[in-house]
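Worked problem 6 (solution included).
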Amino acid sequence: MFNDLFSVAHIALPNESTVFASLLQQMMDELGRASDEGQADILQNLLHNFLLYGERERRKQDIGAIKKGADLDIVLLFKDVLETNYKQEKQVSYYASKAFVTEKRLNQATQRVLGKTPKEIIDERVLLEAKRILCHTGQSVKEIGYSLGFEEPTNFAKYFKKHTQQTPLAFRENNLLA
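Solution. The predicted structure is:
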């Protein structure tokens, strides 16, 4: 259920499915009780059951079946290299060289497996981290830009606005957690 590489799994729950609502209610009830030595184990087991039922539904719907092969191997290697280097490196050529393929071959693999270009995937990863930092920290836009490898704060602000149609500060204001 969590192996959709760069996307979030979406599962359509059947209308008659009450098991998810029941498990959620049991978790809420358990959280509302006075804490004791068994509470963590009970919550863990309820969550485990919730995830198992979710995986069952996902398999029924055959979501995200990815064929094994060279394309998947390239994409997985790209994903690993991206995860450790996205703050410093934003060029497709860098990731292609680390995956020991040409840019064209990396593009073919990501298009076949994920339906996106490597540049789109790099941008999505950088933006995901930027959004996380904006929502969950008080760091300035300048600090965030530097931490994500942008040499000039204005470059980060322009990059963010180009991809999200809003400034980093506007995004933060619209998405502050209460």
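Discussion: Residues 1-65 form one domain.
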